[in-house]
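Example 3.
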Amino acid sequence: MNAGLFLGLSPLLVVSFGGLLLMVAEAFSKRRVDETSDDRDAGPSSELSLGTAVTLLAGAVFAAAIWFVGPEKLEGASLVAPWVIVDRFTLFFSFLLCLGGALAALLAGGYLPEHRLDRGEFYPLIIFSTVGAMILAAAGDLLSLFLGLETMSLGVYAMVGFRRASLRSTEAAVKYFLLGSFAAALLLYGGALLYGATGHTDLAGIREAIANAQPGKGPNFAIVITAAVLIIVGLAFKVSAVPFHMWTPDAYEGAPTPTTTYMAVAVKCAAFATMLRVLIGAFGEGGLESWAAGWPPVVALLAVLTMTVANLVAGQQESVKRMLAYSSIAHAGYVLVGVVATMRAGGDAQGSVMFYLLTYTVSTVGAFGALILMGSRGAEAVSYEDLAGVGKRHPAAGFAFSLFLLSLAGVPPTAGFFGKLYIVKASIGAGLYPLAVILLLNSVISAYYYLRVMVYMYMREPAPGAPIAKPMRSGYVATALVVAGVLVLVLGLWPTTSLQIAVEAALATR
Amino acid sequence: MSPLDLVFQYWPAIGAGILGALVPRGEASTKQRAGLGFIAALTTLFVIWLWPTEGAAQAAQAPNEWPHLLNLLIALPIVGAAAVLFIPRQMLSTLRGFTYVVLGIGFVASLWLLTVPMTAGWHFQYIKDWMPSLGIRYHVAIDGISLWLVLLTTFVTPIAAYASFGSIKTRIKEFCFALLLLQGGMIGAFLALDLFLFYVFWELMLVPMFLMIGIWGGADRVKAAIKFFLYTMAGSVLMLAAIIYLVWTHQKLTGDFSFDYLALSRVVLPKSAQLICFWAFSLAFFIKVPMWPVHTWLPDAHVQAPTGGSVILAAVMLKLGTYAYMRFSMGLFPGPASNLSANLAGVAILGGILYGALVAWKQRDVKRLVAYSSVAHLGFVMLGLFSATPSGMQGAVLQMVNHGVSTGALFLLVGVIYDRRHTREVDEFGGLAKVMPLYAVVFLIVTFASVGVPGTNGFVGEFLVIMGTFLSERLGKFAGIHTVGAAAGVILAAVYMLYVVQKMFFGPLTNPKNKHLSDLTVRESLALAPLVLMIFVIGFFPSIFLDRMKESVLLQHNQFKVVSGQAILFADDRDAKLLPEDTFSPVFLKGMPKKEKTEEPAPGADTQAALGGEGKVAQ
Amino acid sequence: MEALKAQFPATNFTLLAVVLALPLLGAFVNGVFGKRLGKAGVRLMALSALGGSFIAALATFLLLPKGEGGGSLSWTAWRWFSLNGRMGQTIPIDVAFSVDAMSATMMLVVTGVGFLIHLYSSEYMVKDPGYHRFFAYLNLFCFAMLTLVMADNMAVLFVGWEGVGLCSYLLIGFWFGDEKNATAGKKAFIVNRIGDFGLLVAMAILLYYTGTLRFSEINASARNLLDPVTIWPFGNLPLEGQWDAANPNANGLYKAIVHLFLPEKGVQVYASTLVGLAMFLGAAGKSAQIPLYVWLPDAMAGPTPVSALIHAATMVTAGVYLVARTSAVFLMSPAAMATVAVLGCATAIFAASIGLFQHDLKKVLAYSTVSQLGFMFIGVGVGAFAAGFFHVFTHAFFKACLFLGAGSVIHAMHARIHDTDKSQDIRNMGGLKKFMPITRWTFLISCFAIAGAPPLAGFWSKDEILWRAFSTKIVAPEVARDPLWTWPSWLGQAIYWVGVVSATMTAFYMFRAYFLTFHGEFRGWKIVAGWKEPKHGHDDHGHDDHHDHHDDGTPLEGPKPHESPLAMTLPLMVLAVFAVFAGFLMAEPIHVEPLGHILSPVFTRAHDAVVLRGEGVEKLMWPMMGPGVAAFLAGTGAAMVVYLNKGGAPEESFKKAAPGLYRLIYDKWRIDELYDAVVVGMVDALADIFTAADKWLIDGVLAKLTAAIVAFFGTVLRTFQTGRVQVYGAAMAIGLAGVGFFLVRPHADATVDDSKLRSAGEVVISAAPGPGYTYRWEGTGTEQKDFSAAREVRINVNPGETKDVKLHVRNAFAQEATHSFAITRPGRGFPSSAAQPPLVPGTVVPAGGGSIPAKDIPGLINPRGAQ
């Protein structure tokens, strides 16, 4: 044990200890609210939300600090490898996950009291889920990977069912739990088979064993392939790729919106981190990466299905929240295109995936945040109708929502545009022209339903007599929106630095 | 110089001013007289100032190009739009005044562009690295072609704003925001020489226009707005893919990423890729133009858009399609552009000039009719470009300006009657010339400009295009047939425009609702006056415009000729190639990103090394 | 005189600016300030503008350089724009004016007759509320017409050309409150536009071949137009025998159809023919010739002075002027000349036949105008440019006089009848000679002139045209060497005889109109029974004296027709004098031809190209005047018998005997209806089809269908989202199975690197890798029995050889897949596609409409910089 190791693990440790502290603090806190009260500031949220955000952002700051020091300079940080790898890839995702978690926590700070869900346990759950997610991103071994996955998922299961009184919320949690266990079991079984075939649980070892296989010697490829199938499906479930996506809309819609936000950003990012680690780290050689017979065509097909189906269905939704859920599935499809491209365009493509996740995180947090902002107690803005005339009554909220939607649709000069551009660039560089074109055409379809929100906000008036959603007043939500908004614009207009960081982070795994 | 000298020197302007003040009859207010006189005097001054004289050309030899002028033109409206967000929405006059000031400064600043003789090549060039690792630069410059389109933008937008503030009474703040943002986006798109920058501006325009149609439009506005947005976006995403492909190819060939138009001009793609990329670019532009058969968004958008929106849409936004085709499709893919020109010209004539005119004739909604007439007019513009002759291309550029002026005026006029009657059905009208004589006169003048009667602006453009078409080598043996088809469009233009004039203005005044319509108001006349004046200025003195664009057009034409030849000669089935720099005129390549040998490898450089490797571009 | 000459040098003759500027100023002042000026002011402005212009035009005429070579005065205002020719040369188009003898004469006619008509109108229109508007239009018209005749190049001519069309549109629809007038104006403009279309095309061709639009330069370089142009390119049909051999079973009808549509040779014409025909289309539009004459009779809806000025004396002669102006071009193409002459001749007789039974006085005059224009085109068509132009000149006087006379009559009738149509109907007139003597006498004189009574003006000009048609033929020396088409010898005579018949008809219907109007009893006392009092709605009318009316058929009290005031009769008298004496300006048979002398230098080329038809024809000059005079006598005599002596009874009996024919002629041979049904109907149907297609097909497919498909699939896919976990689990299971299916199956795929195939015959095939895959290659030369890990094979192929290679792949699950390749190396004998010269547009020079001789193309591929 040495300082380097502690320093290397510091983001993880900071967040974990922060979480423990907050949990203890919450336990001793006098702030308890009976859920009938109207005083929105009396509950634990008013302190915990900020505390959580600060904790997570502290983790992000530590990650950034190590980045600038250079993880390779930390002696001893590799002691825990391959279980926890401290490299730039990890750091990038740590930062990203912490950022997403912190913004979600800020949203929760406004949302929970407003909707009489103000119970303190939400925040430790977010923090420990994030810890799990960070472990997941750092895992270089199937065992720690599974550990991280379960840590993350358990917290999220609880967060989905957080609205105990609501049948939908509970149903969502149960569905998510059932199908999530199914996927986890597949992953676990796949890992076991891999271990059986190669004798390794660490990804690098598996890769080496597969790469060095000679005919008649080395791992049994029948087992390896079976394992690959199981693991790919398990990962596809986590990133909610079609046809493993069906839990997503239900879970997203049923969950309280901050949870939805958290799932859409942090959980998804962590899943993609794992995907990159596993597909490139373990299945990167030995024919498994083959364009003809390996995972790339499978993932490409998944990408096409995911984008297209999600966009087609999203256009038919009546609920904005559910539409955003499908939109997050569609975005997963776009990211998958980048994942496919990693095999040919290499670090550039992987960087594009990671940069995309960054832009996606800020845009999605913003979009959900704006949606949260538009509903107040008793009248959560959910459907399109609820948004009618918002642009006129609450111009700032409308403007913010429009900005995030345009970013999601990929209209320049927002972050979303640049993320998409970079993925397209990577896939064209990899020669995946049809995928790039399908991606772009899908973004046109997606523009339709994003615009529809703007249509309702700016061009419709609420039906006479309909309940008018009154935006809430919450400094936390506003803060989250401002942060996300600034990032959306900055990442769109001056993406150079963040892009370089993403590419550098990507190169760490190669 | 004594004041008396000034009087002598500028007597035509003074005379025009006095005359303009005398023109309105009856008890016209002093304000109206002063306004008209002012506009007349200004226009005359403008003509005097532009008049090509030997002395002026000599004096302007040493160009005094302020490098930030273009930045100012682009940034001013965009910053203004941002500033509008912070003005309280109740302060209507402040909002309007602010918008006028911003647009006014933009217009005055754009006049500065005219002080520089537009020799071939780029002017007022300004380059700054934006995203160096991707080779994306903020690269703006102007030449004789974009000059007139920028001026058209800065000229028409204030008019549209002025006219709109007469009829739009709700949500002024959003309107000011959208208008200014739109202006910035349009000017940016005309000036950008970096494909990425161009794409950003190209898409940036969509949102304010979408809002403009969707918020202040007619009954079916939402559908039209979404249609407009999706059509345009569908085209442009394919362009994006092609841009990136081109950039990659360039990177493979030179090792450097660059989105720069000048640098990418040197790339000769493999044959099939050339064709695909040409179509990807051109489809985006054709949708914007709009060319048959991707034109159907236009009538809907026009009919639903508010007057100001229609004016800007017709006058400026459609020009982006034609301009971009001229600049980018012809510049980057001269091979396919050259090979396909005869076929495309056929589409422009049959689908644009003839089909557009015939469909226009059958429309009963005046605005829809004018919208289809735009399809026909832009068919002429595209034909001029496809013909790829100096005359044809000059005619096309001039016709872009003409269409902006006359169709802009037509939309304003339709807006006038719509404000009074809230209908645009021709059958609702008849005999209006009796109750609205001034309106009838202006409408008639604009109609004849639109029809292309000599002496008005429309004629010169159409004439140049038709002559250019016949002289064209690209069109080969079909040049004659093309010419006949295009010239036949002249007949149809008269058919549909006179149809609407007769229905609206002549015949007995039967509909009682029309009996007490008021004639043009001061505001409306002031908005129309500059456009009507420009109709005659361009009609009688087109060389003011043609002389300034001539060298740029010739450069573009020569380059197109040479490079298309080279591209066809050297294009390969398999590999992309790079044309030597001396294929191009040095003035054209001025400002191209240069590889600096001594440069430290950027942090992204090893990235590129990691991706490189394959020597050839995969096909 | 000398002072003036010094003041205005011939190359910068700014007096032309004065001629042009005055009417323009008049138009502007009257149009903008007219309402404030009052009627007197408007009248003063309009008359002084035209008067001043006339004086300046007269000065110009006098200052024209005299002498053998002729000469011209020109003034360049400014550079309008410039074009680039096919060689890349710059072709400047200036706003420039140039006057020679022909245009100077036209200027005099335009300003002179124009002034008289202005004077006349100042009284005729005096009660119209749109007085100032009327004079603004009229002045503007004069400006445009002057631009047309003074233009130095075709572009400026086109300005005037369209300008007069525009003014005509405005003036025909002057009383726009009436739908009919507005429609007539629109019809005129659109039909004129069809002609303008021809002119545009002509300009394009001229620009291409001669590289200029200036008349002087066109005439100088007209020889360039002798380039053969293929207008029907498919000339490679096998000759008849071969075709029959190839299609032995084809029956006669099939053969006939094929031969009808596919000539054995491509059809070639001279470029000059194309220019000529296109230009003639323009001229036919403006000058109301077949097939574009239909607008002129309708144009009579305008005020009568307008009909006199625009639709009789000036504008409609623009076509003749144009053909004469570009005579050099026409002389290069006998075919075009023949077309002009034949269509002119057809128009002459056709319009004359319609004129026979018209009841509307103005319509009679309108058809007579069309017919006379036909004579003018015969003149220019047979190469008698001076004669054709001379007929323009004389016609301007007598036809203007006739129209103004008719206007005077209508003025008088309208005062009583108060209905536009009825007041123009000659059946309601009669016996007016005693009420309006001046009008009657001037009308009669003009009737004699138009009918060709010697020695009045019409006689000389018409006779000259007919004589030339009879005696000459066109042989342009340049064309003669290799004529694509020659002028048949019988054509001139045929034209002559048809002309004589038309002249007879002219005399007949003119005197029919004269007798019915001025002789007999005034039938206006008793207007047809059942005639209703018109609504007093049309306040815009010029002469709505609100007199009392009774609606029964009994003789009515009312104002008597009266002679018009001096301002109207003075022009009549002046014009009548000219109608008598103008002929002596160019009376060739008696060798009094001052006008002929000064026009002669304008048409120098015609001297060589137009020759006598045969030996000794010139001796027939006097005898051949006989039929012309006989035509006059016969026509006049017949009219006198029928309408003066028998009171129109023979017409009635003809109507009874052949009612169908009578109605057909009266209905103008129903050509308007034919056009409506065929041309207009076709365009209309096409527009309807397009509109429907636009809405349902294009928009339907691109927008609606796409949206519907997206929505449909969205809805379908949405139904899977049932909310049941079992379904979700099943979907996952299916997905798992799918992924498993793909990865468990082997995939044989390979990339072929054939970059060295052509040079060395070497091909490298590398199979795509797969997890645990082994490979076996077949057909590579070295046979392989077992699967191995070798992913790559190298194959050598000889030229012209094809090798089939088969790849077998086995995966870890012991499943196999195959993939075959065929690799061919092109043989030496075949040129590979890469060795072919690349196709560069422009090097393959088409021979069609816009062809360029290959030698003229400056190097298209220029490896150096663009500048």
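Chain A has a mean pLDDT of 86. Chain A touches chain B through 45 residues (CB under 8 Å).
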